[in-house]
Amino acid sequence: MNKTIKIILVDDETLFRKGISFLLGREANIEIIFEASNGNELISFLQSNKNNHPDIIIMDLKMPGINGVEATKIIHTEFP
User: Fold this and answer.
1) What domains does the chain contain, in order, with CATH numbers?
2) Confidence band (pLDDT; 50, 70, 90) for 79?
């Protein structure tokens, strides 16, 4: 039995994010649980969905608002 891998995609380029979502979504054991266009949306999702955290976050570094580096620091602090 394979465990489903829960993934969040974070990128301000919608076309890129949707393309990655499409490719990963074709895999039987991968579930895209959330897509965000910046770190602010990601942090809000994680704070309001404490029982549905991802196994993997695929995130762009340069985004408006909270960028990937800042979001990673916040995640390490708030969700160790």
Assistant:
1) 5-78 (3.40.50.2300)
2) confident
